[in-house]
Design goal:
Strand order of the largest sheet: 5-6-7-3-8-9
Radius of gyration: 28 Å
Strand content: 25-35%
Shape: elongated
Distance between the termini: 42 Å
Structural class: alpha/beta
Number of strands: 18
Oligomer: single chain
Order of helices and strands: EHEEHEEHHHEHEHEEHEEEEEHEEEEH
Largest sheet: 6 strands, mixed
Length: about 400
């Protein structure tokens, strides 16, 4: 299979703190200043990066913000040049990098479609043949004769995507464009992307949406600090990246403001069904939360709440204010345990948190805080609803509570 994109030992270095042209021009009018020996500060956005993309391949670039993904796309698009190394693009290149970058605010949507299309290398005839499809896709039929300066940011981006998505390039560069518009437009954008993929285009796709990356791309390159950390089959690299991200999250220390003048949380442990203190569980396992506390004054009728949370908020909890339980606390150190049974969570990292209320729930003794974290590492094999070939990113990034089900077909 022939090669569409060739990167050979490519590095890109930016000078930090360099003066703008206006500042430089003004400085010429000032008296000469003594030369300084301050070293030049540089930022190495890419460092000796090499890879190839075959004709018709769809490759994803993933990594943290500032890793160098967009720099790679800009080098491919010819927006910037490498400091060293060679970038070779074999085919007409279309870019969905900065949507609507060529729009003029005073021109109408119709005029900007033709202007933007020509900036992307399309002829007026080609734009005219696709104009109705572009407008229908953008869902802006009533606004095409309105200057785009009156468009909302969503309308502006949708029109930019619609123009870019109806080009006919041999190589398509895509940077975080599937977050355009509302949920329904995002689904339509993903479907359009998949249609381009099925048509045999060579696609380089940058996104933090790992679900989209896993399902659109054949292979993935993980970029970290301007270098290739890993590359391979999309599913494998996405799983490796998610595991790394989860390990980093688990390793972060949770601040420990679990004290007031009279009561404090000293330690929170998570026990498995064998009574061992662990930080990893399987879907469907029991999780026992053991809370060790210290108090300087006796407290009768305290009400504890213990809950499981993720980045979207509280998933479920045990709440004494609701179930009628309370705890009489004596001076000194004590422990309290709460067991969650058959925890229905999909793989990912979660936190255990809680709060403590006074008698009858009239005042908060300790406000809600996160106490510790744990990870669900994989699915139990007895859960027949899932197979070994499940989508890695879907399990990690979508609905976190797993409910077993069975289809009647």
């Amino acid at each position: 299979m022939s090669v569409a994109i060739h990167f050979a030992q490519v590095s890109k270095v930016y000078a930090l703190g360099s003066k703008h042209r206006i500042s430089t021009a003004l400085n010429r009018l000032r008296p000469a200043q003594p030369a300084t020996n301050a070293p030049k500060r540089e930022f190495r956005a890419l460092d000796n990066v090499s890879f190839e993309v075959s004709q018709g391949e769809v490759i994803g670039l993933i990594g943290a913000n500032g890793a160098g993904k967009s720099t790679i796309l800009k080098l491919m698009a010819g927006i910037t040049r490498p400091t060293s190394g060679q970038v070779e693009m074999r085919g007409r290149v279309g870019s969905l990098i900065e949507l609507g970058a060529g729009f003029h605010p005073e021109l109408s949507g119709r005029e900007n479609v033709f202007l933007n299309g020509q900036l992307m290398g399309m002829s007026r005839k080609q734009i005219g043949e696709r104009y109705d499809q572009i407008v229908e896709f953008a869902e802006l039929q009533s606004f095409m004769d309105t200057p785009v300066k009156y468009y909302s940011s969503g309308m502006y981006a949708r029109l930019g995507f619609a123009v870019a998505a109806h080009m006919d390039p041999g190589i398509l560069l895509v940077d975080e464009v599937l977050s355009v518009g509302d949920a329904s437009f995002q689904r339509k954008s993903l479907e359009r992307m998949l249609a381009l993929v099925r048509s045999g285009k060579t696609v380089v796709f940058v996104s933090h949406n790992l679900y989209a990356v896993e399902h659109v791309c054949n292979n993935v390159i993980w970029i970290e600090h301007g270098r290739i950390r890993s590359k391979g089959r999309a599913r494998d690299i996405v799983k490796e990246y998610l595991t790394f991200d989860e390990n980093k999250l688990l390793g972060e220390q949770i601040r420990n403001p679990h004290y007031n003048d009279d009561l404090g949380i000293d330690e929170v442990q998570l026990l498995n069904c064998e009574g061992k203190s662990v930080s990893e569980f399987l879907t469907g396992d029991d999780i026992e939360v053991v809370i060790q506390y210290t108090t300087t004054e006796p407290l009768n009728g305290a009400r504890f709440s213990v809950g499981i949370v993720d980045g979207r908020g509280l998933l479920f909890e045990a709440r004494m204010l609701m179930d009628g339980h309370s705890v009489d606390i004596s001076t000194g150190t004590g422990t309290l345990a709460c067991r969650f049974q058959n925890v229905p969570l999909t793989p990912g990292v979660y936190a255990v948190g809680g709060e403590i209320w006074g008698p009858n729930g009239y005042d908060v003794i300790l406000p809600w805080t996160e106490w510790t974290r744990f990870r669900i590492i994989n699915l139990n094999t007895h859960l027949s609803s899932f197979t070994e070939d499940h989508s890695v990113s879907h399990l990690h990034l979508n609905a976190p509570v797993l409910v077993q089900y069975q289809w009647n077909l």
